Amino acid sequence: MAERIVSPGVFTQERDQTFLAQGVAQIGAAFVGPTTKGPAFIPTSVDGIDGFVTTFGEPDGTSYMSYAVKNYLQEAGSATIVRVLGLAGYTTTAATIFATGSLGTKLFAVLHPTVSGSSLTNISLLGTTASFGLVISSSNSLHTSASNLSAIEGNNSFIGTYFGTTAESDSSYPAYVYAIFPDALAQAGDTVSLSATTASLALNTQYDNATTPWIRSQPIAGASTDLFKVHTLSDGTAANKEIKISITGISPSLDPDSNYGSFSLLVRDFTDTDTSTNVLESYDNLNLDPDSPNYIARRIGNAVPTYNSATGETYYEGDYPNTSKYIRVEMSDSVIPENAVPYGFAALTSVFSTTSGQVTSGSYVTSRWLSGSTYGYNANAIDTRAYYGYDFSKTTNLSLLAPTVGGLTVGSEFNLSSSLASNEIGGSPLSLTNRDQVAYRRFTVPLQSGFDGLNPARYIALGGSITSTNTQGFDLSNATASGSKEYKRALNTLSNPDSVDLNLLVIPGVLYSQHSYIAQSAIDLCEQRGDCFYLLDLATLDATISTVTGLAETLDTNYAAAYYPWIRIVDTNTNKYTWAPPSVVLPEVYAYSDNVGAEWFAPAGLNRGGIPGAVGVKTRLNQAQRDELYESKVNPIAQFPGQGICVWGQKTLQRRASALDRVNVRRLLITVKKFIASSARYLVFEQNTEATRNRFLNIVNPYLAGIQQRSGLTSFRVVMDETNNTPDIIDRNILAGAIYLQPTRTAEFIKLDFNILPTGATFDTI
After folding, report:
1. Residue 491: pLDDT over 50
2. What is the mean pLDDT of residues 209-234?
3. Residue 639's closest CA among 572, 545, 568?
4. 301 φψ region: left (φ > 0), alpha (ψ -120 to 50), beta (else)
5. Of 540, 354, 549, 410, nearest to 463 (Cα)?
């Protein structure tokens, strides 16, 4: 309706043409590489150092990834992490020791080669009793003859103590104890004798998350029913011993209109105890009713990460998004009776492929009676803090949580209905309907099957040991190498700018001289996306200036920059000095420069290019060396007396001289393009009219003016009118615009003339 004006006066009105959504959310760097834990091959955003450590763990000295991320998050708010794990697994020849007695044969120990790629060729026992000697050899000529070993846990000469239980225990030995089951001696019966042999160990599958066995119901009509499993969101071997799950408060239905009972689920720290629990998350009043708001899958989430090999993207499939930081739920396909509640769990899976009669079984806590003054209680008292279920105090049980081979089960299932002594609950059987017994209806279940997809004995090459076939334990020597496939998959998850937003790409430990396929793939990714910049490491620790300049001359891109030399930092894992490639410390420099300036300021010089974590450089460059590097597009890292270590260059790897051969200009363009593209997205499907064009101009012009005021642009012009939106263009459903930018140049070369004047000269005549 038109406005009606009758009497004279001044009339004003407002027309808001700025309702177009402006800008983009905070964008951070993306880091690709191995971490100690966390989801694999899923771009995961973390906020701050605490958020990163919670999800991906502390640095453990086996990769540069965590150091680079933590350095960056000193100055930045968030980052995107893509963890790399193994896709192929491994096979090897291991050694086994069996215990045979009156009750049969049980697996006692599995020994694994300490060197990846080798196999155990011989094992023989000197004696067959619990006190024995052992001779063991491997294909890489390592040989050990040990005497006076013991199969009894706790003895000083216990075999697990002697050889160690990790591949890093002592690489001078041909083997380490991969898994050991002290309970096998008792399970085998009387008059036990030991025997040993070599056998194939096949874990030739890709990485996996950890999962509980099926949580099962109370017996209904004489049988238990599978209800659900709990999976970790974190992948890898470490996930097996990160958390455990407790089910408590198991109660039948108190609602006359429903048969569904309720229960609580606790996510507990793996290392806690029943007397000192550390509950990370708790979910109370859960049930198995799909129509209830407290349905376990609805409350916790059941979304499964799914990789699309055609597009390289990872997406989640499931009915309910994951709300937990640690777990997701998998519901059984079985028909679940309405009155079913969690009451136990199925048997675990074996960690070694052998006959079912030889698999050592785990043990369960089936009684809470105290046999003495344990925990300060009187003898013959009930420990009200204890949980039934898996016994986490037994070495045998902990070994059963190693990566599994699948197929074989270990022992029998656990169920509350068959485990409790009636005198423990007042002389009457455990009953679901007895409200006084709710404290007894609780149990704890472990998780297993988490696997890195990598040989734990692989050599982890860092620093000067990096080769084409080994950087941080990955083979990146060519396009078909196992590590190259794994890193390429990680990069593929970042390929779609509509799915993952980033402005900086960092792959610490990947060197162009040794791992050109992955480094070039990263460059291609940045160029194809057009909205991110790659911090490239050119060469090895001891590479000469001529080597790195030669490598740089083969590259031509303004979406990457290279730096020299390597930096010495403090390894917070060992509190020792270590050498790191420039990409470990450069992200922090970029983030600091953005904080105190902006993306269009050069991340270099004494004001914005300082490297606070650096304690030394591999090569202390002089002016001539810095000139040689800079002429070849390599940015020097300089150390000046009393002024610290800083970046002393900001060239991209572009050959042709132009504005885009500087880092600050390329990053200016990335920033501007991200903003304008994000803003223009709101104009898609709008009417192609002057009003729509003005909406665009009313956003972009003030934004570019703001950059100009902050020294990013000398001048600019935005054209979106009838000159470039002709009738022909409009008829093609195109809205055309042209943006002209004059980036501000940096003062990289300061020339000062010092003039010496004779006596009597006056300055006003100069």
Report:
1. yes
2. 95
3. 568
4. left
5. 540
> Which pLDDT belongs to residue 376?
45
Overall residue count recorded for the chain in this entry: 766
Q: Which residue has the tokens 């990790």?
A: 166
Among 268, 258, 267, residue whose Cα is nearest residue 288:
258
Report the alpha-carbon distance of residue 477 to residue 541 in Å, rounded.
17
- Alpha-carbon gap, residue 405 to 92, rounded angstroms: 13
Beta carbons within 10 angstroms of residue 708's beta carbon: 16
Neighbours of 728 (CB within 10 A): 8
> The pTM is what?
0.90
The angle that helices 545-553 and 623-631 make with each other, rounded to 10 degrees, is 20
SS3 labels along 22-74: CCCCCCCEEEEECCCCCCECCCEEEEHHHHHHHHHCCCCCCCCHHHHHHHHHC
Q: Which of 655-669, 693-707, 714-728, 738-752 has the lowest mean pLDDT?
A: 738-752
Quote the distance between the C-alpha of residue 517 and its chain's center: 23
- The owner of tokens 């910049």 is 533
Amino acid in position 285:
N
Which tokens go with 439?
Answer: 């404290």
Closest by alpha carbon to 329, among 342, 314, 343, 340? Answer: 342
Strand-strand pairing, 504-511 and 533-537: parallel
Residue 18 phi/psi, 5° resolution?
-115, 15
Angle at 495 between CA 510 and CA 541, to 5 degrees: 10
DSSP 8-state symbol, 150: E
